[in-house]
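Predict structure. Chain length: 243.
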Amino acid sequence: MKIDPSSSANLSAQIAKAIRDSIISGALIVDQRLPSEAELADQFEVSRPTVREALKRLAAQSLIRTQRGATGGAFVNKLSFEEAYPQQITTSTLLLSMNAVSFETACEARYALERSCAPLSAQRRSADHLATMRAEIHRQGQPGLTDEAFCASDVAFHRALVDGAGNPVLSYQLAGAVEAMQPLMNMITFSARDRARIIELHTQLADALEAHDASGADTTLAELEHYTTNLARSVMEKRQKTT
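Prediction complete.
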């Protein structure tokens, strides 16, 4: 593991990357104890506070864990898909906001990805996934439900559909699509959308998955994409006329 002291990159970031690369390559394996702070400081020729900061970066990414005591230290962690979800969501949210991705581009990507899950979810969804979807549909129909709560329920509904595919890799990849792109779409359309229509489409989706009807689920997602895209266009056209 090496760093470049002459580089403009932060030294602690370089150390964190070097250790992360060793974990990814398999040079450091799960549950392996990392060298001590003093040993790492000598190896990288930096101060112990710099090493400590690097280890904090790795711990924040759930790549290492620390243990106290005589047999303690920093150890390579086994990262689960669930633990990685927040990082995927944060990265997706930043990419969307920093690169000014258009609504239509985000919508197209999000539904293309979700529709890829529909056939698997139709085959594999569990009773718990269906129960979550039904519960969110019921919640969405409650009088007085705030826009924020409706948006949160919308995200939970679609996450259940994605998770119903029974594929953790897909669930991880789609975490950003659903939980980063969906709020973006909600922000633009929430004030104009017909909740009854959304609930109708959500009910059709849940019914299709319960009946193991992959084609029906795909058709309904296509309808939902069409409705969402047209609604967004209408909202943005109205905004342009008032500015």
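Summary: Strands lie at 64-67, 73-76.
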